[in-house]
Design goal:
single chain; alpha/beta; seven-stranded parallel sheet; two-stranded antiparallel sheet; globular
Amino acid sequence: MKPIPLITLRNGDRVPVLGQGTWNMGESPAQAAAEVRALQAGMALGMTLIDTAEMYGEGGAERIVGRAIAGRRDEVYLVSKVLPHNASKRGTIAACEASLKRLGTERIDLYLLHWRGTYPLAATIEGMQALQAQGKIGGWGVSNLDGDDIDELLEEPQGDKYLCNQVLYNLSRRGIEFDLLPQSLERGVAVMAYSPIEQGRILGNAALAAVAQRHAATPAQVALAWVLRRPGVIAIPKAADEAHVQLNRGCLDIALTDADLKALDAAFPPPRRKQPLAML
């Protein structure tokens, strides 16, 4: 099994292009042990970027991550997010401190604004900068911000220090390819794709199934390989059991051909004009 390729963020951090998501984790006590094992299995396979958020399971996902990384904090790159209604300067700091407690760590490597809310971006940036100065976060970024929002962000003092924009991106949600994705890559900003298989809704597509059959792979593996075909893109699929983690990891063994990409373009056409940023 070949190593997972790494991407270098603007602050010099090197992270795997294939990580692990935790949306919907931490909601069922009966599933907690399996979720912990799944995350640890992913870590063992090199999927050491773990993405979570205070929103997921109302903090439950962060607690699951905390259990998974206990005694192994140095092995992982932790990403978490602040909710918009907490994203004032003071609120951002308080939310981060609460996340740190749930995660059982003193530092979040990358802390994101989950989506745009009513607080000015300047206030959120001030909170992020304060947290970074205190060593509680390594860097900060955003999530679900479209091009206009990014333009506003860049007008703020220190706004150009954001490292990442986490957005919805998969075969059926290609709008960012028209403008947001190329603009991000030109700036050296990573794009982190959440729901890279559209929560399973695209997996019955005939063209996707045909490509998967040619590669002796699953449709989900092909969908993940497609997301990761571009440099500068990170994917964070969620897997709640160890077998699913193994399948996700296998996407990196797939080399999509020009014919594959053409077939997928026909089934899932690329954007021809600016589209509103899609969100889940």
